[in-house]
Amino acid sequence: CISIYSIRHTPPHSPCPPARNPLLHTHFHIHSTVYCHSFHIFLLNLSQTHKMPKKLSKKKLAELKRREEEERLRLEEEEKNRIELERERIALAEQDRVTLLKEARLAALERQRIKEEDDKFTPEWQPKLSLAYESRFLELAERKDWHEFLQCSELPDPENESEINSYLTLWRDQQSSTSAQDADDDIPQRNIEQDFKDCNVAIELYHQIEAAMFRAMDRDEERRVHIHKENLGKIAQSTLDTLDDMTAYIMQFSDLYIDQNTDQYANKTSTIDYGLWVNIAKNARKKYVQFDDIDAVCELALKGMALQKIAIRILHMKNCDPLTITAQQRPLMIPIGGIVYMDILHIPPPPSGHKGWTIRKLTSLSKRVKRKPYEQTDAQGNVVDPPSTRVSFVVPSQVLIRKEVPSVAWWDLDKKTWSQEGIDSEKTKYDPESRKITFYTTHLTTALAVVNERVFDVPYRSWFIRPLPRYGRNAAVYTIKPCAHPTEVAYIEDIVIFIFNDQCKMLSPLRPELEHITSKWLEPRVLLQRLAESGINLVVGDEDAQFTDRLPKHSDVEQKAYREMSWLGNVCSFASSKWNQDLQVGQDKVVFRVSQKLFEPSNAIIEDLPPAGGVTFKGLSEEGYFQEPQHLENWENVAYWNFKASFISCKDSSESSLSLETLPNHDTHLNLALCLDERRKDAEVLRRIEEEDLLVCETIRILLSATRPLSWC
């Protein structure tokens, strides 16, 4: 018997010494007294459990050695490859370090060279350009002032806020001389026709203030822009207040103004369509109100509506939008064809007769209109959604309908934006012959409008701008190919704008709906605004990019390119490049094409160039003249960064991928003018800039900055 045993068992015929056979090393600790017989049996079982494997054959031993050799060679090859890869990595890292040092050295030299160019060019040329522009602008402004003086206009100066305030005060005093009187006092007599004339004049002033606001925007005068917006709101509100007071007057004297057969009064001017129905007859079978004089219809959809003491007024301001400029956020939709105010109004007690006298009861409704919400209540008195009512009106002839069925929206006063909620678009119909649009809406006593998507015309397919030296140094032409839509019913191939001094004239498309634009010379942003109101919008902002497949360029590089392109307005032609939207270009660079070869028209005849800026054309051929010349070998691509520009080796005719490498034997420069100057090596470019008519240059810059072809094409 034992207390502790330590046993090392080695099977017989073991090929390895016991010390190198760990599998067969066994230690046992026995902590209790056992019989020797039992321990003997334990040893026997242990020897049977760990039997020695059979001896390997020579073939298997050879195979084992072969595998061991292969493993050794594999490990050696891996180590060799690892060392080689590490050597290559170190070499590449060193090469990258040298390249980075070289690039940093070249970038430092480039920055130094561009800084030297900036130090030389900016002090020398900026004062010249500014002085030349100011003197040219003042010269033209004096001519315009003299021209306006000869016209003897009674309108206030749109740039003079005190004159506008005096005009508004005088207007209010003239139409409401007894505004301080109580409701029991007599109602002053109104001249309805004069009210309409005053409103038309006010809308003319509205457009003049709008043009002044655009000029302030172009000069980055934010304070002036804010003042002009406030004045626009004042003019629009005074116009609506006048029409409201006039409406109250007509209803108070309904026996004098309302047609007894139709219960209506209507008037139609160049800027306003006005229709008023006063429910005098209270015909329970009447289902809708039809204004024949202005070709508008409003359904009486609410139960018992035909028996209520109400009036329905339709007020269509055809070329004025005082709402969108007050929007808290830039609306995705913009009105085309003006605003339609559809109001349900309370009516004053009707006049009565007694012994040859007409008795009129004076109430608060005698001088002021009171609007009635379009709503209904359930049996418990809770306000519920009203039924859809059918409304129709004529879209003005000065609107180009681009879709088979245009969209309609209403002005959400709380959110200050256009909304289509509550308008059944599936039931909307449009008759192109009568130009009447019919739709169903749950929103009345609000503003309605035919709307178009702000981004309908972007992205552009291409753009092109070129000087017209045969007409002098103050003429150019700008062409844009807007986005094409498969379902578009009024396809537009080109929008061509002729530029002369500070004025623009649209030459294409020549459509009857756009005659009010193509027949006039307008300031650049005014022309673009009139186009937007007529259904062609070329002014799209960064906030609209989410609704397009384009990312807008960064403002600094984009505006730098437009400014410097305008300097070269009588030197070069510019056009879109297919590489501009390449991912390698991104948002911080722009790419466009430039050509110094001027393609002269063969059959364009200009009839008159009066000094005031008016130009008339005769025999202008659009074929080939207003389109981009197809001489690709004359075009080269230019890349712009926010601090430099350069010619690049990649052309639009190239089928390979984009490369922004600078053209061989060329350097990057501060601006395009210096790039061209290096290319010509004769100082001709700088001389031409010095002789440039900077008034037309500024007009080119404004058009480019507003339409942003480098972002949307």
Question: Could you please describe the fold and organization of this structure?
Answer:
With 713 residues, the chain is α+β, with helices and mostly antiparallel strands. The chain has 13 helices and 26 strands. The strands form six sheets. The chain has an eight-stranded antiparallel sheet with strand order 20-19-18-17-21-22-25-26. A seven-stranded antiparallel sheet has the order 1-2-5-6-16-12-13, with helices on one face. The chain has a five-stranded antiparallel sheet with strand order 3-4-11-15-14, with no helix packed on it. A hairpin with a 4-residue loop joins strand 12 and strand 13. The longest helix has 94 residues, at 58-151. The chain is globular and about 140 Å long. The relative contact order is 0.08. The model is unreliable at 1-37, 178-184 and 599-625 (pLDDT under 50).
List unreliable stretches of 5+ residues: 1-37, 178-184, 599-625
Q: Shape, please?
A: globular
Distance linking N and C termini: 102 Å
In round numbers, the mean pLDDT is 83
**Relative helix content:** 25-40%
Radius of gyration: 42 Å
Structural topology:
Blueprint: H1 36-49, H2 58-151, H3 161-175, H4 192-218, H5 222-252, H6 254-257, E1 264-268, E2 272-278, E3 288-291, E4 296-299, E5 310-317, E6 333-346, E7 352-354, E8 357-359, E9 376-377, E10 383-384, E11 389-394, E12 407-412, E13 417-419, E14 429-431, E15 436-441, E16 446-453, E17 462-467, E18 475-481, E19 495-500, E20 503-508, H7 515-518, H8 524-533, H9 555-567, E21 573-576, E22 590-595, E23 605-608, E24 616-618, E25 636-640, E26 645-647, H10 672-680, H11 684-690, H12 694-707, H13 709-712
Antiparallel strand pairs: 1-2, 2-5, 3-4, 4-11, 5-6, 6-16, 7-8, 9-10, 11-15, 12-13, 12-16, 14-15, 17-18, 17-21, 18-19, 19-20, 21-22, 22-25, 23-24, 25-26
